[in-house]
Write a structure and sequence with these properties.
With 309 residues, the protein is of the alpha/beta class. The protein has helices spanning 7-10, 32-41, 70-82, 99-115, 138-147, 158-165, 172-185, 232-246, 251-275, 293-297, and strands at 17-25, 45-54, 65-67, 90-93, 120-123, 128-129, 132-133, 153-154, 189-197, 200-207, 216-222, 228-230, 284-286, 306-307. It has a ten-stranded mixed β-sheet with strand order 3-2-1-4-5-8-9-10-11-14. The radius of gyration is 19 Å and the shape is globular. It starts with 6 loop residues before the first helix and ends with a strand.
Length: 309
C-alpha cells in the first residue's frame, strides 16, 4: 500500500513548513523549546531537529545529555529525503557548537533549496554576547564567509554583528552601516536584535527589497528589564520568522509584533517569579512561554518602529 499523502504538503497552509535545527532541553525554554511552540501558535508546521538534548540549559550548576554530530544530522535529512518529506518553506537555525555541524547545516541549506528554490533561511548566528565568545573561535569565519551569503534573514546581537562585519558598533549609524555590510554579503533582511547605545537598548532592522536599492531601516527602543533571561533570542528570531512571512514587505511591523510579544512575556516572567517569592535579579529566569500564548497569537503593539529617513 502507498503511504498516505503528507497533508502539510498536499494542502499547504498560508504560513509555511519550517525545519528548525536548534538545541533542546528537557526542562525549560531555550532553542527549539523556545521557538517551536510560538511558530505553531502562529500557524506554522514545524519539524524540529535537536542539535543537542540536555536535561536543562547550561546556566544551571550541572547538566547532562547528548550532542548530535554532523553525520547524525545528515542521516536524519537522508531519512526525510528517502520518503519525499524534505519540502520546506523555511529553515531556522540557532546555536551550533562545532564547525563540522555548521558545515553540515550548509549542506542542508543546499539540499532544501534543490527541492524548493524559494526556501527562506532564517539564521540566528549565535556566537556570543557582551564581548564574550561562547563558541569555538573558528566558527566566526565560517559564519562570515559561508553562512551569511546563503541566509535570507540574519538576527545577530550587537557583538555578533561586530564579529560578522569586522567593525565596531558604537552608534546608531554604525548599526545601520553594519546592516549594509551584511546586505552586501547576502541576506535581504537583517535585524540586530539588541544594541546598547549610551545606556539605551535598541533593535535596528534593515530590509533591502531589491539588490542595488537602499534598504529601508528602522529602530525600536526597548525598555531594560532588570533581570537575566534565557531563551529570549531564540524566541525573538522565531517570532521574526513568523511575522515577517505574514508581512513580507513590512519588516518594521514584524519587528513591532515580535518585540511587543517578548516584552509582555518577560514582564509576566518577572512578575510571576516575584509572586513566588524569588528575587528576579539573583539568577537567570526561565521564560513563561506557555502562560503567554495569547501574547504570542495576538500581541498588543506597544513598541513602535521609527523609520530612518
Amino acid at each position: 500500500m502507498a503511504p498516505p499523502p503528507i497533508l502539510s504538503l498536499a494542502l499547504p497552509s498560508e504560513t509555511g513548513r519550517v525545519l528548525s535545527i536548534q538545541s533542546h532541553t528537557v526542562q525549560g525554554y531555550v532553542g527549539n523549546k523556545s521557538a517551536v511552540f510560538p511558530l505553531q501558535l502562529l500557524g506554522y508546521d514545524v519539524d524540529p531537529i535537536n542539535s543537542v538534548q540536555f536535561s536543562n540549559h547550561t546556566g544551571y550548576p550541572t547538566f547532562k545529555g547528548q550532542v548530535l554530530n554532523g553525520e547524525q544530522l545528515w542521516a536524519l535529512i537522508q531519512g526525510l529525503e528517502s520518503n519525499d518529506l524534505l519540502y520546506y518553506t523555511h529553515l531556522l537555525t540557532g546555536y551550533i557548537g562545532s564547525v563540522s555541524f555548521l558545515s553540515t547545516v550548509l549542506e542542508v541549506v543546499n539540499k532544501l533549496r534543490s527541492i524548493n528554490p524559494k526556501l527562506r533561511y532564517v539564521c540566528d548566528p549565535v556566537m556570543g554576547d557582551e564581548g564574550k565568545l561562547y563558541v569555538p573561535p573558528e566558527l566566526v569565519s565560517v559564519y562570515r564567509e559561508k553562512v551569511v551569503p546563503v541566509a535570507s534573514m540574519l538576527t545577530p546581537n550587537q557583538f555578533e554583528a561586530e564579529l560578522l562585519t569586522n567593525s565596531r558598533i558604537e552608534s546608531e549609524r554604525d548599526g545601520r552601516e553594519a546592516c549594509n555590510i551584511l546586505h552586501a554579503a547576502g541576506p535581504s533582511m537583517v535585524v540586530i536584535t539588541s544594541i546598547n547605545i549610551d545606556g539605551n537598548l535598541l533593535l535596528i532592522g534593515s530590509h533591502q527589497k531589491e539588490q542595488g536599492l537602499s534598504p529601508e531601516q528602522f529602530k525600536i527602543v526597548i525598555p531594560k528589564i532588570p533581570a537575566y533571561f534565557t531563551g529570549t533570542g531564540d524566541l525573538t528570531t522565531a517570532l521574526l520568522l513568523g511575522w515577517s512571512n505574514k508581512y513580507p514587505n513590512n519588516l518594521d511591523k514584524a519587528a513591532e509584533l515580535a518585540v511587543s510579544t517578548v516584552q509582555a512575556l518577560l514582564q509576566r516572567t518577572v512578575n510571576d517569579y516575584k509572586t513566588a517569592g524569588h528575587d528576579p535579579q539573583s539568577t537567570s529566569l526561565e521564560i513563561r512561554l506557555i502562560q503567554s500564548q495569547d501574547d504570542i497569537r495576538q500581541p498588543e503593539i506597544k513598541f513602535r518602529a521609527e523609520r530612518y529617513a
